[in-house]
Amino acid sequence: MNKGVLMYCFNTDQVAYHRVADVSIGLAKQHLGLPITVVTNRSTLDSWHNPPDVNFIVVNNDTNNTKLGLPWYNLERCEAIEHSPYDCTIVIDVDYLCFSKKLLQYTETVHDFLIHSAAHDVSYRQALTYERKSMLPLVWATVLIFRKTYQVRKIFDTVKLVKSHYQHFCNLYRIDYRNFRNDYAFAIALHQCNGYHAYDIIPDSIATLPHDCTVLSYNDTGLNYRYQDKINRIESQDLHVLNKGFVNV
Amino acid sequence: MDINELKSHSDLSFDRAVAKKNLLARAESELITVYQDHIFRADAVTIASVRALMESQEHFFMLDSNSNPVKIDSPKEFLDLLIQRQQSALNTYHQTYQSLKSLKD
User: Fold this and answer.
1) What is the ipTM for the molecules in this complex?
2) Could you tell me which residues come within 8 angstroms of residue A236 by beta carbon, excluding any fewer than 6 positions away?
3) pTM for the whole thing?
4) With an 8 Å Cβ cutoff, is A236 touching chain B?
């Protein structure tokens, strides 16, 4: 069974995601040691002066979504099962930095589909919980680990259905956040595909660096960040970095 | 103590508290391990359960982190893995915690 990493990378006018991808690709190669496939569009691919040594899939991506009032192109994730050339795939956001090899172990389990149900703010100011924002538990589509089985195909098919009728599902589950969000789409799909009961998850929490934290420096094993006059370091722990400005460090 | 001294003392305590929380989060993440294709947490409860069951059973059943049942065929191997994983995580936590503690001096 071959394994690999799949990333989605689409530049916007505000963020050069290909530069973010350069960092996460380097770290994923170093710590996970797996082949990497990047799904991107033509203009983003052309932005790479020195494209990384990965497999590229070029698509015409959907550009009809925003996040926090800015363009946000991440609507293709529901097609990961078609895009992935691997039997077992680790899908990671381009802003998820692998500073450890812990994701590898989840490819060696009986589970055909795994996702996180928890995340925490490493500056410990915000509780990243959304119990009051909808009628179902949120999952974090930042990292997906899946095999191409019949059951997993049904999950992805359901995510596509949810995407097509997102406002209806927002009403059904009383979701506050009305722009399409993969986290909710996967949460709904898992809820429906698992008979409205609990499903298996990664029993870990995604360490998350919030937007208002500034990255001061990073290397192969960790990252220094600042919030106001507070400086701290994350070492040997995977990190979801929401402030994309770190590529300018 | 004047207000500036109090503020810097409080700031240092805050930094230490956040750093400690992150170290603990990292240690808890490192406790997660896979054995016989199932996910377990190498915490004290799991280790104590395996140890207790080993005393009277050659093979036994455990619940993984998603409450799926698993037949443990090689308890000694499983226990060794759990202890190795737990001590590795706590050793890292301990080493970094020592340097953190020295910040107050």
Assistant:
1) 0.89
2) A99, A100, A221, A222, B26, B92
3) 0.92
4) yes
